[in-house]
Design goal:
It is built from one helix and nine strands. By secondary structure, it is mainly beta. The protein is globular, with a radius of gyration of 21 Å. Keywords: Signal. This is Lipocalin-like domain-containing protein. InterPro entries: Lipocalin-like.
């Protein structure tokens, strides 16, 4: 009898744990940490009802890819390689994440994007104003 109670309690605990980990709990919000360095990979938009992406023209030919570095301190560092010598220009601002929105501010300019996808390998953003999609990879 005691074994049945222990088994019942264990099964009940597993059931409660499994239901508490349901994807409905976060209302679609991605729970992977956003901090990290992401290399600019693709840009594009939605045409009709289809996503159209192409290699980011912002990346200078023969240079490392431009990047977005989101730090724990909420600093956002944007790296831009340009010219034949691939000179790096870094611009620092701040970022804030609210659910599936990411706002990056540099000086007096802010832009807010929907986080379309966030995995250990990819960050895909869609600018709320322009609709431009930007894909970064790690």
């Amino acid at each position: 009898m005691k074994t049945k109670r222990i088994l019942f309690g264990l099964l009940l605990s597993i059931g409660l744990f499994a239901s508490s980990c349901s994807s409905d709990d976060n209302e679609g919000e991605t729970i992977i940490p956003i901090q990290g360095k992401y290399n600019l990979s693709q840009t594009g938009s939605i045409v009709g009802d289809k996503e159209v992406l192409f290699d980011a023209p912002q990346n200078a030919s023969g240079c490392s890819r431009d990047y977005l570095d989101l730090r724990l301190s909420n600093a956002a560092v944007i790296g831009d390689y340009n010219g034949s010598d691939c000179a790096l220009t870094e611009t620092t601002g701040t970022y804030a994440r609210s659910h599936n929105d990411l706002t990056i501010s540099v000086g007096n300019v802010s832009s807010t994007s929907d986080i379309m996808n966030l995995t250990n390998k990819e960050l895909k953003l869609k600018d709320k104003t322009t609709g431009i999609i930007t894909v970064y990879t790690r």
